[in-house]
């Protein structure tokens, strides 16, 4: 093999981002991660040039038109909402990475997927490096996931897990989690970037060789990204995040990357004591009780490909404080500040002497600008103490000039709105913000008789 000297030697390399340095450092100079800089044998100053080798029989490069396209059939995971985010089911040989915060329910969901697969007669191996088999059985008893075709192994050594795969011959492998498994082929403790990379790449190789689908659990760091080297996300075929709020039992799976399908699908689940339940129609989760109340307005938001009605609630309270309070929950505070300015200047709604509170129902986060109009109407009607009819929804982005701008996938939102009984949609066709606020008056609900409110 031919060699030549490099002029500068970079003897240390970050396992996270590939940053190189001639000196060791505790913290990477590029990605700022601690403890990821290791000695790089391959960068000690010698550049090797590779001698070409003839490909093995049957592995020669071929014209694309001669490649066999018979696609391996997908099969259902048994959990419809999980299939939805995977792009229609599990592809043989696919490596799926499921990440999520501690306690969000990753193990519970995957135990359910394992149980469904086992019930359909497809053997599953669930290898856990985090929990004992007795602990997993207890969970399975609680969630009704006992089946003879579901095999458990509590194991942290990669070679032993692969030994179990040989013995059990599963049709689905679940590894919980990649950060707790280690390989003797790599240095460092389990969870170290080089270990995570070695474990993941070996598992993926096994998946491809055997056409065995695998689901790998990945922990997340404090900032929400997957713990371990970034290369992990490049190695696997599908990256999905399991998200949920601690205060509610609602959980979402979103895909960040999918080599077999779109990434804009969202799976919706409910965490209960009896396990994880699918919520195939989450349409009514983010709505109030349906009674017209002053200061509320429904918008049709998009969660992935799903159109979902979400109720925005607002409250305004007179104040003499020089800096009135603007408190928000579930919406972006700087977006609300902009909407308040548009209302004040373009809608002639005086808010500078009012505390303003804006919140969504059900703890959902409304991040898209298409919710602007509903937020503006909720605030304006809170101030006017006017309730709008329950069959009215508002969809539109507000521009600083007070125009209402159309939103993406408007027809899909209208279809869903019609399905749920929203007969009037206030949007860009209503004119500007001032016109829309005038229209709101035309759609005001008859006052609701709440009976006598006691005076405390
Ligand atoms: N006995 C129980 N009854 C009801 N709910 C329970 C019970 N035990 C656990 N849970 C719920 O299950 C959740 C834990 O789920 P799970 O262990 O699947 O999470 P995880 O994402 O795998 O966590 P980790 O990252 O720690 O492995 C808890 O937060 C709790 O809400
Ligand atoms: Mg777990």
Describe what you observe in this structure:
With 456 residues, the chain is an alpha/beta fold. It folds into 3 domains: 46 residues, Rubrerythrin, domain 2, CATH 2.20.28; 201 residues, P-loop containing nucleotide triphosphate hydrolases (Rossmann fold, 3-Layer(aba) Sandwich); 159 residues, Ribosomal Protein S5, domain 2, CATH 3.30.230. 25% of the residues lie in helices and 24% in strands. The protein has 10 helices and 22 strands. The strands form 6 sheets. Strands 8-7-9-10-6-11-12-13-14 form a 9-stranded mixed β-sheet, sandwiched between helices. A 4-stranded mixed β-sheet has the order 15-16-18-17. The protein is elongated and about 75 Å long. The chain starts with a strand and ends in a 14-residue tail after the last helix. Magnesium ion binds next to helix 2.
Helix-strand layout with pairing:
Elements: E1 3-5, E2 12-14, E3 20-21, E4 37-39, E5 46-48, H1 80-86, E6 95-100, H2 106-119, E7 124-128, H3 133-143, E8 150-154, H4 158-168, E9 172-176, H5 193-210, E10 214-219, H6 231-235, E11 238-244, E12 250-258, E13 266-272, E14 275-278, E15 296-303, E16 306-318, E17 326-329, H7 333-346, E18 354-360, H8 372-384, E19 392-394, E20 397-398, E21 404-405, H9 410-419, E22 424-426, H10 433-442
Parallel strand pairs: 6-10, 6-11, 7-8, 7-9, 9-10, 17-18, 19-22
Antiparallel strand pairs: 1-5, 2-3, 2-4, 11-12, 12-13, 13-14, 15-16, 16-18, 20-21
Helix pairs in contact: 7-8, 8-10
The structure holds adenosine-5'-triphosphate and magnesium ion (MG).
């Amino acid at each position: 093999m031919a060699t030549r000297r490099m002029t500068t030697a970079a003897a240390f390399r970050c396992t996270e981002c590939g940053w190189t340095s001639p000196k060791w450092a505790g913290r990477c100079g590029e990605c700022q991660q601690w403890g990821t800089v290791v000695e790089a044998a391959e960068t000690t100053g010698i550049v090797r040039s590779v001698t070409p080798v003839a490909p093995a029989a049957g592995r020669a490069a071929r014209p694309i038109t001669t490649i066999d396209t018979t696609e391996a059939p997908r099969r259902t995971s048994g959990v419809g909402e999980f299939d939805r985010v995977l792009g229609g089911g599990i592809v043989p040989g696919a490596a799926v990475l499921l990440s999520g915060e501690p306690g969000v329910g990753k193990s519970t969901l995957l135990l359910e997927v394992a149980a469904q697969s086992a019930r359909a007669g497809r053997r599953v191996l669930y290898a856990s490096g985090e929990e004992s088999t007795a602990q997993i059985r207890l969970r399975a008893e609680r969630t009704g996931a006992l089946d003879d075709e579901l095999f458990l192994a509590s194991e942290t050594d990669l070679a032993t897990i692969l030994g179990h795969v040989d013995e059990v011959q599963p049709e689905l492998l679940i590894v919980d989690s990649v950060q707790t498994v280690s390989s003797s082929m790599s240095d460092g403790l389990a969870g170290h970037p080089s270990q995570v990379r070695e474990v993941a790449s070996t598992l993926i190789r096994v998946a491809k060789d055997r056409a065995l689908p695998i689901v790998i659990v990945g922990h997340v760091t404090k900032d929400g990204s997957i713990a371990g080297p970034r290369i992990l996300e490049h190695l696997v075929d599908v990256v999905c995040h399991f998200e949920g709020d601690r205060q509610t039992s609602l959980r979402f799976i979103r895909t960040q990357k999918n080599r077999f399908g779109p990434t804009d699908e969202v799976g919706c689940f409910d965490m209960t004591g009896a396990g994880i339940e699918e919520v195939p129609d989450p349409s009514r989760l983010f709505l109030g009780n349906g009674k017209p109340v002053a200061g509320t307005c429904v918008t049709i938001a998009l969660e992935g490909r799903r159109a979902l009605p979400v109720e925005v609630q607002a409250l305004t309270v007179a104040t003499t404080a020089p800096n009135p309070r603007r408190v928000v929950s579930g919406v972006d505070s700087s977006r609300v500040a902009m909407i308040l300015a548009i209302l004040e200047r373009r809608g002639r709604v005086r808010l500078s002497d009012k505390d303003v509170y804006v919140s969504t129902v059900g703890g959902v986060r409304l991040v898209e600008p298409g919710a602007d109009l509903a937020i503006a109407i909720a605030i304006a009607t809170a101030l006017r103490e006017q309730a709008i009819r329950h069959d009215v929804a508002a969809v539109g982005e507000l521009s600083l000039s007070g125009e209402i701008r159309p939103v993406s996938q408007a027809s899909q939102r209208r279809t869903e709105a019609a399905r749920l009984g929203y007969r009037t949609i206030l949007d860009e066709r209503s004119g500007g913000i001032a016109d829309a606020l005038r229209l709101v008056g035309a759609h005001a609900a008859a006052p609701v008789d709440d009976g006598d409110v006691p005076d405390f």
